[in-house]
Amino acid sequence: MSTINSHHSLLINDIDHRQSAESEKKTTIAQQISPGSSVMEAIFEQQVQLSSQTETIEMMGLKIGEYYKQLKNTRSERSKNLLLQFIESQGKDGFNDLLKKNLSHHANSDLLLAQQILQTGFLLTQQGHNPLRRRQLSKQLADLMEQEGWEISLFGLLEFNDMPTENFSRLRRLFQQVIDDEEYSVINFFEKIKEWADRKRRIRVLLRAMAFELNSQPAPEKGRRLKIMIDRLKRLLLFLSLDERCEVMASCYGLEGDVLLSQILEITAQSWVFKDWLEERLDDAFNLENLQKRELIFDLTKLFKIMPDGCFTDDDHREQILEAFSSFEC
């Protein structure tokens, strides 16, 4: 009996030993296989992540495309609504007079574009009870307003009635220069505008085109461009104000407004102004009697006091010019 038990125990021990050895063998094999499995899993995870990132980028591209398309549609719709408001504000009779005044049988492409926009817009305002016709005209108007520079064509037509194509092209270039030329100081900007032919009317066209574009921009786009547009609008308005003031002042002394404006810009452009230089410049430019010269110096002093800060490099610049004027005995 004890022999049987002993044999049984040996058999059990042998089985346990074999199971233990088999288990260790499986563990060793598993350990040998595991690194390969980890590499495959890592590669698979990278592929999944890459695929996910690619899908995300594609989705972002689609979203951005949709966003800018929506912005463009919003801007186009706002522009169209603003134009229709302008046409409606003229009234039917007023618009007919406006169109007759500006209608040209020998119009160039810019004038024709502006006339087509006005006519199509007017017809659209008259189709309140015809949805199908409204949709057709709205599409036609949107297509016309897709053409680059139509604002300059429209407001150029309203201001000048008839104008050669090269003048419209020049106006469009001026519009872009006014917006893009950031390196110009206010005085350099004024000096450049001063050389424009028929500058007041050109400035009016630019002001109306810029104001129209500003109002048609959706809120998300009113960032850096908004700042630039407002700055340029302010500069143009400041120039008009200074130009008109010079004309009024010059008329009091029998002078030409352009000559006085040129002298004011030249004085302001100097980094340092001395009495002798100033007196010589005024004498050469105006040739006034002593009394008139003193009165002009007094008026110029007042003008330099109220000119906007942007016309000067800093407060010291303004004060130095005023000091040079104050050195005259009045």
Automatic annotation (TrEMBL):
Domain Hypersensitivity response secretion-like HrpJ: 72-196
Recorded coiled-coil stretches: none
Classification via Gene3D superfamilies: 1.20.1280.80
Superkingdom of the source species: Bacteria
Alphabetized Pfam families for the sequence: HrpJ
SUPFAM superfamilies from the UniProt entry: Type III secretion system domain (SSF140591)
A GO cellular-component term linked to this record: outer membrane
InterPro entries: HrpJ-like, T3SS_TyeA-rel, TyeA_sf
Swiss-Prot/TrEMBL GO biological process terms: secretion
Listed name of the protein: SepL/TyeA/HrpJ family type III secretion system gatekeeper
Taxonomic lineage: Bacteria, Pseudomonadati, Pseudomonadota, Gammaproteobacteria, Enterobacterales
